[in-house]
Design brief:
- The complex is a heterotrimer of chains A (308), B (314) and C (235).
- Chain A is mainly alpha-helical and 308 residues long.
- Chain A has one domain.
- Chain A contains eleven helices and four strands, in the order H-H-H-H-E-E-E-E-H-H-H-H-H-H-H.
- A two-stranded antiparallel ribbon of chain A has the order 1-4. In chain A, strands 2-3 form a two-stranded antiparallel sheet.
- In chain A, strand 2 and strand 3 (146-150) form a beta hairpin.
- In chain A, helix 1 (3-35) runs antiparallel to helix 8 and helix 5 packs across helix 6.
- Helix content of chain B is 73%, strand content 3%.
- By secondary structure, chain C is an alpha/beta fold.
- Chain C folds into two domains: 2-79 and 154-232, Rossmann fold, CATH 3.40.50; 91-153, no CATH class.
- Chain C has nine helices and ten strands.
- In chain C, the strands form two sheets. A six-stranded mixed sheet of chain C has the order 6-7-8-3-9-10, sandwiched between helices. A four-stranded antiparallel sheet of chain C has the order 2-1-4-5, covered by helices on one side.
- The longest helix of chain C is centred in the middle third of the chain and has 14 residues, at 110-123.
- Chain C is globular.
- The chains are: A mainly alpha (308), B mainly alpha (314), C alpha/beta (235).
- Chains A and B meet through helix 4, helix 9 and helix 11 of A and helix 5, helix 11 and helix 13 of B.
- Chain C: Keywords: ATP-binding, Nucleotide-binding, Transport.
- Chain C: InterPro entries: AAA+_ATPase (IPR003593), ABC_AA/LPS_Transport (IPR051120), ABC_transporter-like_ATP-bd (IPR003439), BCA_ABC_TP_C (IPR032823), P-loop_NTPase (IPR027417).
- Chain C: It comes from Sedimentitalea arenosa.
- Chain C: One of its GO terms (cellular component) is plasma membrane.
Chain lengths: 308, 314, 235
C-alpha cells in the first residue's frame, strides 16, 4: 500500500480509538470535575462493561444484534448501579477525602479485577458484532495529470467501526445536552462550582455524587460494550483505557468536558498514526512523560486557561 | 522507663528476635522471613516520604527498580562484582529520586500522586523498551558465581538471611535516628502543616526533596539487595503492582511509625502467601485490605497501638 | 533607623484593589498597631511583608535590603516572625515540640529546651509543656502561637490578631508581655481590641479600602474624625 492510503487507514482506526476513548475519558472527567476525586478503578468499570457484554450476548443468543442491543442498554446501567453502590458504601464514608479516595479506588480496582478473574477466568473472549459489512474505500491517484479514483487493496473499514464512531458521537452529544440543558445537569454544574453553596441551596450533594460516580462508570462501560466486538473481553483490559483516560483528562484540562473530547480525538488519532512510525511502547513512554510534565508545568492542561 | 529507653527496648527487641529466629525457623519460613525483611526495607523507604513527610507517592516501584536494575545490569552487562554493583544500584536510585523529586514536588496532593504514577509507568515501559538488555518481562537470572560478596555466597540461605537482616537493621535504625533528629522533626512538621513550617523559616521544598532522596535511596537499596539475594531481576518489580505494595504494607502496619512497615509487610506477605495457595486471584486480598483500611483503620496496626498504648511511639 | 518599609505596595485580586499603593515605614524598636475595618486589607498587607502573598507591584525593604522577591522562608531567616490569624499550631505535636520547631532554626541541643521553657513561661503556658497542642483551649493555642513567635527572638514580630478569643485576664497578661518585649523587639500588631491598641502601640496606622487612611499617635488617631467615621463608629 502507498503512504497516502496507509495514513488514511491509520486515521480511521484512530478515529475508532478516539471515539471510545472520548466516552471513557468523559466519564473520568465528569467524576473528577464534579466530585474532585480521582477514580483509579475507572478502567475496571470499562473492563466490567466488556465482560458483562460478553456474558449477556452469550446468554441471549439468537441474532447477534439482539443480544448486543440489550447489552448496550443494560450493561452500562448495571455497571453504573454497581459504581453508585461503591460510592455510597465506601467513598461517602471517607468523606471523599482526595488522597484516601485514591487508595480506596485502588482497592476497588483489585477487587473488581480479581473477582472477574475468579468468575470469568483468564481467557479473552470475543463478542460478535451486530452488523459487520466490509467497506472498501477509494483513494485518489494522479495519472496522466488527471485525478482518478481507485480502490487500493487492503484499504477498507467495516460498517461496525463506523457505527462505533456514530454511536459514541450520539452519546457524547447526549451527555452535553444533559449537562447544559437539563435541571439535573444544572444541579451537577452547581455542585461542581461550589459544593457548600449547593448544599446551602438544598441540593442533595451526596445523591448527586452517587449519580455522577454511576454515570461516569456507566460511560466507561458503554465505551467497552462498543469496543468489545473489535477487541475481545479480558480481565486485564482495564489498564490501557485507565492510562489513556488519565492522559486525555489531564491534557484536556482537569474537569473540562470540551477539553477532554478534543484531547481524546487528538490522542486517539495520533495513537493510531504514531504507532505506524514508532513502536507502541515508545509511544506510551512519551505519552506518560507528557502527562507528568503537563501536570508539573501546565496544571491547567494544554488547552485550559490558567485561573487567576 | 524513659521514652528513649522504651524506644531502644522495643526496636532492639525486634532486631534481636529477628536475629534469633534464623536458628529455629523451618526452611520455608526462614526463606520467607529473609524476603520479608528486604521488602520491609522497601516499605521503610516508602514510609519516610508517606508516613513522615506526608507525600503520597504512587510510583515507588521506580526507585525499587532503579536499585534492582542499577545493580543487575552492572553485573550482567558491565561484569561488576556484587559490592560495586550494589553501590551502582544505590546511585541509580539516588539520581532517579533526585530527578523525580525536583519535578514532582512542584505539584501537590492528587497531582503529585499522578505525576509519580506516570514517572513510574514511564520507567516500567522503559525497562520493556530496552528488552534486548533487560530481557523485559522475562527478566534475567544473576548466577550464583556472580553473587559472591567478599567471599560469602549470598545464594546460601543462612548467608542470605543474615544479609537481609543486616539491610533491614540498617534501614530501621537509620529511620529511627532520622525521625528523632531535628531534620526528621521538620519533616513531621511539614506533614502536619506545611504552611506553618514555611512560616517558621524552613525551606520546605528543600526538606521535601531531601525526604524524596532518602526515601528513594532506601527503596533502591532494597531493590538492589532483592535482586542480588534472590538472584533474579525482572520487569514485574517495576510495575504498578510494586508501587501499590509498599503503600499497602505501610497503611496496614501504620504510616509514620518506625515499626509499621515491617508489621504490615509481615502480615500482607503471609496473607497473600496463604491465599495464593487457594486461588490465582490473590490480589483480591490486597484490594479488600486496602478498602477496609481506608474505611476503618487509616492509622494501621502500629497507629492503633500508638493511639491506645503509647503516644510516644516513634 | 527604619527596620521595615514599603513603597507603592499593591495587591489586586481580579481587578479589585485589596491593598493599593501603601507607603509604610516602621522604625526599629517601635510597637506599631495596624487597624482598620474588616476587609481593609490588613492581612493581605502583612502577607506581602512576610512573603505569603505575592504583591502585584511595589517593594518591601527590610533592614535596608530589598526583599520583594525573596521567598517567605528566607524573609523569616532574616529575622521576621509571623503568627497566624487563624490558629495554625501543629495540632498533633506536643506543645514543647511546637515551640522547639520554631527555636531550632537558631539554636541547637540543650539550648533549645531552655528557650522553649522560657518562651512558654513568658506567655503563661509553662505548666502545659507536656500537653498535645491540639488539646489546648482556643485561647491557649493563640498563646502558643505567640510563644512560637517569641522563641525565634525576631527583630520584627508580626502578630495577626493575637488577642482574638483570649479571656479578659489573658488579654491583660498579653498587654504586659508586649510592653516587656517592646524594649528589645520591633512589633507590628494587627488588632481589633482597641484597649490593646491604645495601651501598647507607639504609633497606629489605619487602613481603609486598602489605603492608608491615617497614621499617628494613639491619642491623635482616637481624635481623628475620618478614622472615627470609617472604623470607630461613634468612638
Amino acid at each position: 500500500m502507498d503512504f497516502g492510503p496507509y495514513l488514511m487507514l491509520a486515521s480511521l482506526e484512530g478515529a475508532v480509538t478516539a471515539a471510545v476513548l472520548a466516552l471513557t475519558a468523559v466519564g473520568l472527567s465528569l467524576v473528577f470535575g464534579v466530585m474532585r476525586v480521582v477514580n483509579v478503578a475507572h478502567g475496571e468499570f470499562f473492563m466490567l462493561g466488556a465482560v458483562l457484554a460478553w456474558w449477556m450476548t452469550s446468554l441471549i443468543g439468537g441474532h447477534p444484534a439482539l443480544g448486543f442491543a440489550v447489552a448496550l442498554i443494560v450493561v452500562p446501567v448495571l455497571v453504573g448501579l454497581l459504581a453508585a453502590a461503591a460510592d455510597v458504601t465506601i467513598l461517602k464514608r471517607i468523606a471523599y477525602d482526595p488522597e484516601r479516595t485514591i487508595v480506596a479506588t485502588i482497592g476497588i480496582l483489585y477487587i473488581l479485577q480479581q473477582v472477574t478473574l475468579m468468575t470469568y477466568g483468564p481467557d479473552a473472549r470475543p463478542v460478535e458484532p451486530p452488523f459487520n459489512t466490509r467497506l472498501a474505500l477509494p483513494w485518489v491517484e494522479f495519472s496522466d495529470g488527471r485525478p482518478q479514483l481507485y480502490w487500493p487493496w487492503g484499504l477498507s473499514t467495516t460498517s461496525y467501526k463506523l457505527g462505533v464512531i456514530a454511536a459514541a458521537s450520539v452519546v457524547l452529544i447526549g451527555v452535553w445536552i444533559v449537562m447544559a440543558r437539563t435541571r439535573i445537569g444544572l444541579v451537577m454544574r452547581a455542585t461542581q462550582m461550589d459544593r457548600d453553596m449547593a448544599l446551602a441551596f438544598g441540593i442533595p450533594v451526596e445523591k448527586v455524587y452517587g449519580l455522577v460516580f454511576g454515570l461516569g462508570a456507566g460511560l466507561a462501560a458503554m465505551a467497552a460494550v462498543l469496543i468489545v466486538p473489535i477487541q475481545q473481553a479480558h480481565y486485564l483490559m482495564g489498564g490501557d483505557p485507565l492510562l489513556l483516560s488519565f492522559i486525555v483528562v489531564i491534557i484536556g484540562g482537569l474537569g473540562s468536558l470540551p477539553g477532554t473530547v478534543v484531547a481524546a480525538i487528538l490522542i486517539g488519532l495520533s495513537d493510531g498514526i504514531i504507532s505506524v512510525f514508532f513502536s507502541p511502547t515508545l509511544a506510551k513512554i512519551l505519552a506518560t512523560l507528557l502527562v507528568a510534565l503537563v501536570l508539573v508545568f501546565r496544571p491547567q492542561g494544554l488547552f485550559g486557561v490558567r485561573r487567576a | 522507663m524513659s521514652d528513649t529507653a522504651k524506644t531502644a527496648f522495643l526496636h532492639g527487641g525486634l532486631l534481636a528476635l529477628l536475629f534469633a529466629l534464623q536458628f529455629v525457623l523451618p526452611a520455608y519460613h526462614h526463606g520467607n522471613l529473609a524476603r520479608i525483611m528486604v521488602l520491609a526495607s522497601f516499605a521503610i523507604g516508602f514510609n519516610v516520604m508517606f508516613g513522615y513527610t506526608g507525600l503520597l507517592s504512587l510510583g515507588h516501584a521506580l526507585f525499587f527498580a532503579a536499585g534492582m536494575y542499577g545493580m543487575g545490569l552492572s553485573v550482567q552487562i558491565l561484569g561488576f562484582s556484587p559490592a560495586p554493583a550494589l553501590i551502582a544500584g544505590l546511585i541509580a536510585g539516588l539520581v532517579v529520586a533526585a530527578l523525580v523529586g525536583a519535578l514532582a514536588l512542584r505539584t501537590v496532593g492528587v497531582a503529585f500522586m499522578i505525576v509519580t504514577l506516570m514517572f513510574a509507568q514511564a520507567g516500567y515501559l522503559t525497562v520493556l523498551y530496552f528488552g534486548s538488555y533487560t530481557r523485559g518481562d522475562e527478566g534475567f537470572v544473576i548466577q550464583q558465581a556472580q553473587r559472591m560478596l567478599w567471599g560469602i555466597d549470598l545464594s546460601d540461605p543462612a548467608n542470605r538471611y543474615f544479609a537481609a537482616f543486616a539491610l533491614f537493621a540498617v534501614c530501621l535504625l537509620t529511620t529511627l535516628a532520622l525521625v528523632r533528629s531535628p531534620f526528621g522533626k521538620v519533616l513531621i512538621a511539614i506533614r502536619e502543616n506545611e504552611d506553618r513550617a514555611r512560616m517558621l523559616g524552613y525551606d520546605v521544598f528543600k526538606y521535601k526533596l531531601a525526604a524524596v532522596i532518602v526515601s528513594g535511596t532506601i527503596s533502591a537499596a532494597a531493590g538492589a539487595a532483592y535482586g542480588l539475594l534472590f538472584g533474579y531481576v525482572g520487569a514485574t518489580f517495576a510495575s504498578v503492582q510494586y508501587s501499590i505494595f509498599p503503600l499497602l504494607w505501610v497503611l496496614l502496619g501504620g504510616a509514620g511509625t518506625v515499626l509499621g512497615p515491617f508489621i504490615g509487610t509481615l502480615f500482607m506477605f503471609y496473607l497473600i502467601d496463604l491465599s495464593s495457595g487457594i486461588t490465582t486471584a490473590y490480589m483480591l486480598i490486597a484490594g479488600v485490605v486496602l478498602v477496609l483500611l481506608t474505611l476503618f483503620a487509616p492509622q494501621g496496626l502500629a497507629g492503633e497501638l500508638r493511639k491506645r498504648v503509647w503516644r510516644g511511639l516513634p | 533607623m527604619t527596620l521595615l518599609s514599603t513603597r507603592g505596595l499593591t495587591k489586586q485580586y481580579a481587578g479589585l484593589h485589596a491593598v493599593e499603593d501603601v507607603d509604610f515605614d516602621l522604625p526599629q524598636g517601635q510597637v506599631r498597631a495596624l487597624i482598620g475595618p474588616n476587609g481593609a486589607g490588613k492581612t493581605t498587607f502583612v502577607g506581602m511583608l512576610c512573603g505569603r502573598i505575592a504583591p502585584t507591584r511595589g517593594t518591601v525593604i527590610f533592614d535596608g535590603k530589598d526583599i520583594s522577591t525573596l521567598p517567605a522562608h528566607k524573609r523569616i531567616a532574616l529575622g521576621m516572625a509571623y503568627t497566624f490569624q487563624i490558629t495554625s499550631v501543629f495540632a498533633n505535636l506536643g506543645v514543647a515540640e511546637n515551640v522547639a520547631l520554631a527555636a531550632r532554626r537558631r539554636l541547637q541541643g540543650a539550648a533549645v529546651q531552655d528557650a522553649v521553657a522560657d518562651a512558654l513561661a513568658q506567655v503563661g503556658l509553662g505548666d502545659r509543656i507536656d500537653q498535645t497542642a491540639g488539646d489546648l483551649s482556643y485561647g491557649h493555642q493563640r498563646l502558643l502561637e505567640i510563644a512560637m513567635g517569641l522563641v525565634q527572638k525576631p527583630r520584627l514580630l508580626i502578630l495577626d490578631e493575637p488577642t482574638q478569643g483570649l479571656a479578659e485576664s489573658e488579654v491583660a497578661a498579653f498587654k504586659t508581655l508586649i510592653r516587656a518585649l517592646s524594649d528589645t523587639t520591633t512589633i507590628l500588631l494587627i488588632e481589633h481590641n482597641m484597649s490593646v491598641v491604645m495601651e501598647t502601640a507607639d504609633v497606629i496606622t489605619v487602613l481603609n479600602f486598602g489605603r492608608v487612611l491615617a497614621e499617628g499617635a494613639p491619642s491623635d488617631i482616637h481624635a481623628d474624625a475620618a478614622v472615627q467615621a470609617a472604623y470607630l463608629g461613634t468612638g
